[in-house]
From TrEMBL, chain A:
This is Metalloenzyme domain-containing protein. Keywords: Glycolysis. GO terms for molecular function: metal ion binding; phosphoglycerate mutase activity. One of its GO terms (biological process) is glycolytic process. Residues 10-285, 329-405 form the Metalloenzyme domain. Pfam families: Metalloenzyme, PhosphMutase.
UniProtKB/TrEMBL annotation, chain B:
This is AT5G11810-like protein.
Amino acid sequence: MDTRPRQPKKRVAFVLIDGLGDVSLPKLGFKTPLQAANLPNLDSIASAGVNGLMDPVEVGLGCGSDTAHLSLLGYDPRVYYRGRGAFESMGAGLAMSPGDIAFKSNFATLDEKTGVVISRRADRHFEDEGPVLCAALDKMTLPSFPQYEVRVRYATEHRCGVVVKGPKLSGNISGTDPLKDHRLLLQAQALDDTDEAKHTAAVVNELSREMSKILVSHPLNAKREAEGKNIANLVLLRGCGIRIEVPSFEKKHGLLPCMVAPTKIIAGLGLSLDIDILEAPGATGDYRTILTSKATAIAKALSAPLHPCPSVFVPGGEDKHKPGRPDGYDFGFLHIKAVDDAGHDKESVFKVKALEAVDRAIGQLARLLWQAELTGNFQYFLSVTGDHSTPVEYGDHSFEPVPFSMCRLADFVHMVGGESVIMKISLDPFPLPTIKAGEDLTEDVKSETERNSKQAFSGDSVCEFNEIAAARGCLGRFPGGEMMGIIKNCLKLNA
Amino acid sequence: MADRASKAVVFYGDGLARFIDPSHTHLHSLASHGCSGFLSLPNAPPSEREDDRIVREVAVLLDSHQAYLNKIEELECWKTSLVQTISDRFMGMRAALITNNSSLKLFGGKLGFTTFQLNELIETSDDTLSGLSLDVVASGLLKLLGFEGGKIMEASRFDLVFVHIGAGEKMNVEKDKAFANDTEYINALLGGILQIAQPGSEVGLRLHLSVVMSYGYVMEADQSNLSILIPKDDKNSNLSKLFPRQSYTMEGENPRNDVRHYCPMLISQWQYAVTRKDMAETFSFKDFEKWGGNLVIPADRFLHEVAFKLWKAPKYGA
């Protein structure tokens, strides 16, 4: 007897390439990195599906990853965004309830006599000492405000997350960071006239003083002083944010979501929307990351119960992980950071190569999902886009729109040459490429002949995944707030 | 240069879009090197006078439509100094508006632009465009931005120079001929600027160039000939179900309730290593529709894009 369900479950693998978009670079023959890179799988998604240009938040607005992600996931940042602090802290593992405030914080060095911040980063290599000092600060009390609980957790380098939990807090206060060395430590101040903001500023100023008292007397600082190192006698409290109160992603969209995002601010944002953060060993959110691990985690989560679902991250818990949903998820969000990092680091050649590595990982993801689709239990969709442009010669985020593509996995498989081709894709993990100093791409840049050899298979007439081709897509140019609607409508379309 | 703040020149050919022809080689050259598209406008109010249209459309382009409405309604905030200036809105941006239209000059001044007539720019009493040497005008414009002798000076008067030309400045000659002359003037002036701002040159690396051409007064027939509505694909009705609300029809999360879906402004932008290069080859509605990389954006977001390239607009979020 055939036990297969009549209607396979429709599920989406959504790949978000941070900092995806770019401009036309003279060094790449006036192509964008996406145009210059060899991207057979991304081009196949574009050929097999529908395409468009997306303004992540609004036309002409250069946006951060946090506001852009909120917008793309259907939450208007103008309504819900309350600063990055809460996202960073939750991503770093601090539990937060709605109404709690958090800071992105630095261990720094203060001249106690003058009140001048000598160094905003006590030490970039703080991996051993940072967690010790965080443990000393964690659960500290505030003499004038005993009703508040303070939680501190180490993040990376000289950074830590600080959360204050308690009643009547406001995220609308300034921080204590003077932003440059050799300037006076600032007092937190209310940024509006509410009693909550004024009260919160007072709480935070006491928090800053009490933290310094604990740090000054910590034996680790005595040891650093004896060794002639900067002492970490200050925690700069910056980027205050309050945990946003929003309907969960599942409630808003009717899709069970999971996410792979080692980047803390993205993981924290996901947690704020009640998205399960999957464990993906080897995925680091930087240049050392293993993209195969991310693809595998998403594929497993989208093909459960055929395969066991990966564990999910629990902030603030004794045990940091719990089992993922046994029946898996409908919407798998795979975040890739390395391309944005290449943009910030102004590494144009690496940006091209990193995009090619992402393309390879998407091939692996497609193969894993296709194996599951062959059982008849699932019908998968692939969707790819970015959260903003990070023009590599500019080195920061910009407003230019990003390409968006979505297709059925079955159409993608047809486009790449059929099942025999996709099943040959190697699943071996691979590192991101390394670039030699002075390396360029003159001979590697994709030729016009290669570009013209492709054909659109279904959907619209677009057959390449890049900023220029996407403008010819059937979706036109749309704001990021429309994206989830497109994805959900795609799922409803008949084959 | 991508990692330095740019300085911007905007040429705005008011009502000149219909008069572009193949002889305007510099306009086509800009389109073939840069990124092109459309800027959508709201509908004109009924029985609008030409002079009002000129000011209203520039007001939209400068994202100051509300200030324009306040002016029309003679609200107190317009009469007093409560109008938010361009400098207040864009991180201290210093901007010049060059126009021979007196109403526009007044409006620009109220918005905080320093206003000039072209002849004031180069200190001549000749107020006709043809009386001014193009090379001198091009150099004069760049000098306002701190570019002199092909070099970048340490100080500059302005970050943005907005040049308004057209709308029949020389009404003493036949109107169509005046428009055609103005179009040729923009083309030639653009040629003068491009000659100085060669790709890779010191000026070329820092100069962000926009050419905007509008249709001015629009006619009934334009609705079908110059439409920006994307045609529904009858062959695949499934795809039309996916069609999202377009960026140009939205203001934040809210739909705009007054969008003219035809006769948009045409725009081409270029800066070496800063803008995208699309597949448009000529400065024309048809080419931008078929090959433009920008598609359609609302005209009132144009200045935000330029300001960002001048480092006068902040990033939203982290």
